[in-house]
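User: Structure please.
Assistant: Input sequence and predicted structure:
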Amino acid sequence: MAPKVWRRIVYIKWKDSASQGAIARAFNIHKSFPRLIPCVLSVCEGMTFTDLADGGGAYPGVKEGEQNKGFHSAIELIFSCSTIEDLKASYFNHPAHIAAAKVIDPIIEDAWAMDWLEDRDTLVVPSSSTAVMKHLVFFEFNEGTSKAHRDALFAAWRNLPSQLPHVLAVSCDEPIRWERGDKRGYHAGLVVDLALTSSDGVKEIADYANSDAYQKINADLLAPIRKKYVVMDFAEHGFGMGAGRTSKL
């Protein structure tokens, strides 16, 4: 069976006792995975600004902490694996992951993961040299939302890079249901990669959220079915401030 491309998003709430140094060490360990674990194609991770007062400019009028529901950081991993069993064996049971868990798990209070499959032929991942604002959202939809409505929403999201030059890539889908995936009953995940030109990404998020293209999607397709959502935003500065698009696969 040919390998599939999996995207895994994990929201993390760190224990109050976790020091900044311990969290930084966890980030460094996670970002070593593409070098140590063959099935890991890329890792992005950062502390969200949605729980910080100085990030409030991206979401005016929203109560601090409401966007991220108390989670502090997020990690995005992209894998090449054939099946869930392959993912378990190649990633979760890999010695590097087992060793990392022994160091990192004791300082995590809560973690929430969501996984979905990508189309290898159309997947776009910004290069490591590109500065990116990562916008990640988990959604719960209203009961009775039709598959046709969900599919139309996903198609509209995926079309955003052709309408907004600063949108480098979009990934969205329904979660794969398995023992290490979403346990909270949410129905979709979304990742938007925005070209980062400011120091913190607040302007980029605001430009995206206030764009005519996003506002139309929100009014026509998202707002009518959105019940709950949790947002995580963080800047990945890369090695430069370019805005190019590079497929890594």
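The chain has seven helices and eight strands.
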